[in-house]
Write a structure and sequence with these properties.
Chains A, B: This is Aminotransferase V. Chains A, B: Its cofactor is pyridoxal 5'-phosphate. Chains A, B: Belongs to the class-V pyridoxal-phosphate-dependent aminotransferase family. Chains A, B: InterPro entries: Aminotrans_V_dom, PyrdxlP-dep_Trfase, PyrdxlP-dep_Trfase_major, PyrdxlP-dep_Trfase_small, SP_NH2Trfase/AEP_transaminase. The structure is a homodimer. By secondary structure, chain A is α/β, with parallel strands linked by helices. The first copy, chain A, folds into two domains: 258 residues, Type I PLP-dependent aspartate aminotransferase-like (Major domain) (Aspartate Aminotransferase, domain 2), CATH 3.40.640.10; 123 residues, Alpha-Beta Complex (Aspartate Aminotransferase, domain 1), CATH 3.90.1150.10. The first copy, chain A, is 41% helix and 13% strand. Chain A has a seven-stranded mixed sheet, with helices on both faces. A two-stranded parallel sheet of chain A has the order 1-12. About 3% of the residues of chain A have low confidence. At the A-B interface, helix 1, helix 2, helix 3, helix 4 and helix 10 of A face helix 1, helix 2, helix 3, helix 4 and helix 10 of B.
């Protein structure tokens, strides 16, 4: 039997596409002691968290709450609860997380239709409308910002489009919420799901989600589980939600005043989620969007000055993650290893068609800060120089300073 | 916009059936800062956690790891990954969590067969064998200790029985692991899933699970998802695992040396899980089982001395939770409210057929301690007295003292 020492992570500045360094206030909140699941203080706190995330999502949706799992659990809870086997769903894919949405929909038994565009690009409203006309889906499921490509699909107008074509609009805003403009009600979004580990500055493991009354109605109509199960012999006629853990109808009941027992709430993650929202709202949503925009632009200016060509359609780039082409002759993994091992700074690799070609550098949540940006640029310049890629001395840092100077 | 103050839970001694007061060391470990998902330190730590839980589960199973969700996520991950639609599963139900297993199996599309016994009782080996012969299931899915009834199904011999009848043995040991004898390999258990919030002394939100090579083989054989999806037109011929988030085949890959990306690990919950296992192994499994047994017996002696009749088959009672009948003429909810509001001590109510009839008092994890037992008994005597139920002054505490004296 070998028993290791108490946990002692190495110091890291996490400047990848997420998870990022957690705000210390969030970690402190998570060290608060537990209370019972139905303690009046606990149920009050659950209600308070609903209110906080209504503000974060800019929505009046009653059903704004947490799914106890990572952002992926939130995505699956939404889709498996909305979609019955055979239901048509349209998934526009412009990066890795679009593929994930499609896969989750397939697992739920849906009739999945996809349209695809090149990584780094987004869809025009016309392309989306044409697909909606063609597919006539029950749900349009789209990623907002896809960190795999560093670009965000514009969402304004999409809700109206969906309304017109009788579809519900689901948005995965894991990577954007809190750091990019996101307006649930104003944009006509029916369901949105997120996570803490990006712009919200917390650890992965809790998924804030919101459901419009229209989406709730669709989900609640599937609630007669027992009937569904009894009809199982004729599987086309009635489909109970395929998951118990991710059954939003039951999770709504658990968070409702009825407090019907479901899972045992992950209280420490709830404390963390609460603190993430609290910190964000204390700063102000518009202020946080502007902060992410500023530090994202500083990172873009700095990396450009270092001679790194930006990746993707800049007009649609996310505020919180910059993609840059790995220069010819430079080994991307070696540079990342030196950044991590010698400077304690993590930057991100890429997946799929971008693997080995693009680095992704995040400036989000707690790490959307001047010192984090400047440290990263200084280290990157030094490491790139040793890897044979030269820029004018101090070029990256100077460009960021210039941008900050202009911005102030 | 209203923004509440930082989190400030009221002080509580959680003596219900779980969640219980977390060990402060676990909460401290959870305040450690994050590192990146593929940081060598992080992947080393994931491997370390696998090793720790192999010791906790007393198993050589390579696939011993965490599911990122509450104990219920672990249950569903196991069952939805093992069971294809139409597969026969046998679920012996002796309390609420047996019903949960059956429901989760139904949602997975399985052909669910149940046998039931009265709450408070367990099944004989003969009854289980007869059902195995009758149903010929692919999986026997059974709860070890069902907190809803405070009794535990004996598991020794069950593995051999399943082997003989060609079934896999799945056990939900959420409420027992760490505080009751549990031997995965020796008892021939193929799959077991648990949670942190009972005898492991942590918060809900991470599910330690273990899978035998035989179970892994069954799950891996379902892995050709794409084939399954292509064959979806003929849904009987090929069934990909119905969940992405809870797909154990993908989660195995994520925890393997291949590190295939799945969800973003809930790092803070991983730190907590690691500390729970570390504390338990530092104490020693046999020592922890004995400690739970001792304090459970003290609580039983104390409540009996207070004139509270124990509930359920005492020969099969769990070490870590005592069920007692609410005395005639006493309002159970009022007593629980006074315990909570006036003494800060939570004891549990009951569900289903026991609702309003039985209290459940836990002594587990961090709260399997002399002071926690004595405080609870002293408070309970005082509150019961005010509710009109009288016992000899100090009877509960004295009985516990006597038991501790004998036990030393």
């Amino acid at each position: 039997m070998s028993i290791p020492a108490s946990i002692n992570p190495p110091p890291r500045l996490l400047m990848g596409p997420g998870p990022i360094t957690a705000d210390p206030r969030v970690l402190r909140a998570m060290s608060a002691q537990l209370v019972g699941q139905y303690d009046p203080w606990m149920t009050d706190t659950m209600n308070e968290v609903m209110g906080l995330y209504r503000q974060v999502y800019i929505t009046d949706n009653q059903q704004t709450l947490l799914v106890d799992g990572t952002s992926r659990a939130g995505i699956e809870a939404a889709l498996v609860s909305l979609l019955e086997p055979g239901d048509r769903v349209l998934v526009p894919i412009f990066g890795r997380f679009g593929h994930l949405l499609a896969e989750i929909c397939r697992r739920a038994g849906a009739d999945v239709h996809t349209i695809e565009t090149e990584w780094g690009q987004v869809f025009t409203e016309e392309a989306l409308e044409a697909a909606l006309v063609d597919v006539q889906p029950k749900v349009l499921a789209v990623v907002h910002g896809d960190t795999s490509t560093t670009v965000a699909q514009p969402l304004e107008g999409l809700g109206e489009l969906c309304e017109r074509h009788g579809a519900l609009l689901y948005v995965d805003c894991t990577a954007t919420l809190g750091g990019n403009e996101f307006r649930t009600d104003e944009w006509g979004i029916d369901v949105a799901t997120s996570g803490l580990q990006k712009c919200l500055g917390g650890p992965s493991g809790s998924a804030p989600v919101t459901f419009s009354p229209r989406a709730v109605e669709v989900i609640e109509s599937r609630k007669s589980i027992e009937e569904g199960i009894r009809a199982e012999g004729d599987p086309v006629s009635a489909h109970p939600i395929r998951s118990n853990y991710l059954d939003m109808a039951q999770i709504f009941d658990y968070w409702s005043e009825r407090r019907l027992n479901h899972h045992t709430e992950a209280t420490t993650m709830l404390y963390g989620s609460r603190e993430c929202a609290r910190i964000l709202l204390q700063e102000g949503l518009a202020q946080s969007w502007a902060r992410h925009d500023l530090h994202g632009r500083a990172m873009l200016a700095g990396t450009t000055a270092l001679g790194l060509e930006p990746f993707g359609a800049l007009a649609y780039r996310m505020t919180n993650v910059v993609g840059v082409h790995i220069p010819d002759g430079v080994n991307g993994d070696e540079v990342r290893a030196a950044m991590l091992e010698d400077f304690g700074i993590e930057i991100g690799t890429s997946f799929g068609p971008l693997h080995g070609k693009v680095w992704r550098i995040g400036t989000m949540g707690y790490n959307a800060r001047t010192d984090a940006v400047l440290q990263t640029l200084a280290a990157l310049e030094a490491v790139l120089r040793r890897a044979g890629h030269r820029a004018a001395a101090g070029a990256g840092v100077d460009a960021a300073y210039d941008l900050y100077g202009t911005a102030v």
